Amino acid sequence: MPNQDFPALLGDAIIGSKIFKIMVVDADMNVVWVNEAHASMFNGEELIGRKCYETLGSEKIHAGCPTCISLKTGKTATGLYNFGPQNALIITLPLPGGFVAKVMLDAPQDADGQVTTI
């Protein structure tokens, strides 16, 4: 078996992927980092320093927010959200130092906006 650092390779592949839209937020819900895939959804708009929920078009925290769950419990959380023209699966991962990584994946939907399986 080749001597590879698979965790590092996997991390680089996920962070660099156009499929995984990732933001990291602090304990106050401020965006502190985004990957290129996430930033590309905002056409150059500055995201760093903004509240997570504001970048998703809301003035307040969403009910059942997986980021809040991860901040409070220190555990991974998931949610399926309808953002109008697109559904998204959101997975939040607690990070050291009180940060949470929020990973969003587009979820396929039918013409009525319902999530479909593939």
Care to describe what's here?
The protein is an alpha+beta fold. The chain contains four helices and five strands, in the order αββαααβββ. It has a five-stranded antiparallel beta sheet. A hairpin with a 5-residue loop joins β1 and β2 (31-34).
Name given to the CATH architecture: 2-Layer Sandwich
Physical arrangement of strands within the biggest beta sheet: 2-1-5-4-3
Total tally of structural domains: 1
**Which residue ranges are poorly predicted, with pLDDT under 50 across at least 5 consecutive positions?**
none
Mind telling me the CATH superfamily name? PAS domain
Span of the ends, CA to CA: 33 Å
Report the portion of residues in β strands: 25-35%
What class, by secondary structure content? alpha+beta
**What would you report as the Rg, rounded to the nearest angstrom?**
15 Å
> Regarding CATH, which class?
Alpha Beta
Q: Could you say which overall geometry the principal axes of the C-alpha atoms support? A: globular
CATH topology: Beta-Lactamase
* H-E order: HEEHHHEEE
Percent helix: 10-25%
